[in-house]
Amino acid sequence: MPEPDKRELIALFEYARPRIIQSMELRHCPHSGFYNPVDDECTFCHQGMECVWMNRNDNLVALEEKSIEELKQQLLMAVDFVDANLTPHHLSRRKCDCDNCAWLRKVEETLARY
Ligand SMILES: [Zn+2]
Question: Which among 24, 34, 78, 92 could disulfide-bond with 16, CB atoms 3.0 to 4.6 Å apart, if both were Cys?
Answer without folding.
Answer: 78
